[in-house]
Amino acid sequence: MPKVYLLDYVAGNVRSLVNAIERCGYEVEWIRSPEDVPRAEKLILPGVGHFGHCLSQLSAAGFLPAIRAHIDAGKPFMGICVGLQALFSSSAEDPDCPGLCLIPGTLDRFDDSVKAVPHIGWNNASCPTNPTLYGLSPDSKYYYVHSYKYPYTKGELENHGWAVATGTYGTETFVGAVAKGNVLATQFHPEKSGVAGLRVIRSFLDGSGAKSLSEKLPQESTIAADLVPRDGLTRRVIACLDVRTNDQGDLVVTKGDQYDVREKGSDRNVRNLGKPVDMAKKYYEQGADEITFLNITSFRDCPVADLPMLEILRRTSETVFVPLTIGGGIRDTVDVDGTKVSALEIATMYFKSGADKVSIGSDAVIAAEEYYNAGKTLFGNTAIEQISKAYGNQAVVVSIDPKRVYVPKQEATRHATIKTKFSGPKGEEYCWYACTIKGGRETRDLDVVELTQAVEAMGAGEILLNCIDKDGTNSGFDLELINQVKGAIRIPVIASSGAGNPGHFDEVFRETTTDAALGAGMFHRGEYTVQQVKDYLAEKGLVVRKFEG
Ligand code: 1PR
Known about the structure:
Blueprint: E1 3-7, H1 15-23, E2 27-31, E3 43-47, H2 51-60, H3 63-72, E4 77-81, H4 82-85, E5 88-91, E6 103-109, E7 119-123, E8 142-146, E9 148-149, E10 163-169, E11 172-180, E12 183-186, H5 194-205, H6 208-215, E13 236-245, E14 251-254, H7 276-285, E15 290-295, H8 308-319, E16 324-327, E17 333-334, E18 340-341, H9 343-352, E19 357-360, H10 362-373, H11 383-391, E20 396-400, E21 402-407, E22 418-419, E23 430-437, E24 442-447, H12 448-458, E25 462-465, H13 479-486, E26 493-495, H14 502-511, E27 516-519, H15 521-524, H16 530-539
The site of ligand 1PR has 30 residues, from strand 13, strand 19 and helix 10.
GO molecular function, one term: imidazoleglycerol-phosphate synthase activity
Enzyme class: hydrolase
Binding site for substrate: 329, 466
């Protein structure tokens, strides 16, 4: 098998990249010290997390001169995400830390005054001077997850010989990929961009991308006047699999009604809807933009390193090339032999097994309570802070399980209330949403506004917003809840709970500013496919990613 060399400089999630490279027929060899760089013919620099963290690790380990020498020697080089950002001179994310300075310019942060940041989801990488650059296609979408970007100015990079592909988020057009000579760099994650992304990796590995580039140098005159892609970020549709062991000891996908996952009959068996790995693959093939696994019971009767979800992730990430999130049990814990295991160590195991994001539930509620008790002080020791520092904010999702609490008037509670269209059992016109822990078993005196603002301050990158009242009811999302949370924070929100048909997805995207929507039961029961939901949204004029088989 031909080889490609991957630079190993920081703990990051590179498992999916390795899987994608192997899928393209290449073998990965790791470069662990600068002395090894010269033996690499093709070198990939995966970038995870924070610009300063990444560049200072590279610099401290002595990699920067070796990377420069590799590029100067004309050998193939590919940078991904922060690996693209590293090519620039600097970033506002860490102004004191210099980049490789191959491209003069400073990255800045997306404006979050009117849109969620990080920019998470599927967007364009369109190159008007060379539409099929490295296998890119103007009709395909690519998976991005980043808060900092290089703003695109027509002709600026092209005048220095770079071919540039762009995406547009809100009114901001940014550099999605650059290529020149032996160098390709993508802001998006090709390894998480389905078949469209695999095409880019393959064209780098087999050299066809660089060849087509040298045949077609960018000309400023050929840059289309209307560079802004027609549609930009798509509406994300996520399939969620709640996983637990059933009474026979098998790991199954289940689904509750308002979190009760047992059958209604007298035997009260855990509802078994299928096998996790098979179902994840099925949803990927139906066009799901992401897959979320929630381990809804702890598997604490086995050593942490043998957690069954690790194996599920390993197997899923071999065939599913969209982002994978894993939740459940991510907190400091004690292993069966008495060893303390931190939430960061558990997250690391999940990332190494193929997860792209971890989702934290109960532990986030406890951390938020402590944050308020300490007068909104951050100590840097929570799971959210530690994991987001090591892997970047985008890797940390907070999953919330709220329940409605009705009150007759706003003054009846200290919590953030809304006036609801659906009055309570005693005709109450107001409600607030109480956070729960342990899968809804325990309700806390903390509302969703308090929780989401606290975890945003700690460094969470996204909110998975469930709703116990709506879960499994097929009656549509709780639009009031979603609007309240969206009004409170800047990070993206995934609406969850209640989806029963494609119309509910259309409704939540139109009546709220949610960034993504998630369904479970309607997919598991085979009532609708993800593809049907997306077709419906497209018919209604919403932009979705089409699955490329
Ligand atoms: O607290 O960090 O260990 O995390 C536990 C995780 O497990 C949390 O994310 C919590 O939401 C989840 N969880 C715990 N118990 C249950 C349960 O159902 N008994 N599932 C549970 C939560 C909710 C959604 C569901 C949507 C959509 N499931 O993920 O998929 O509500 O369903 P629908 O479209 O069929 O309505 P920790």
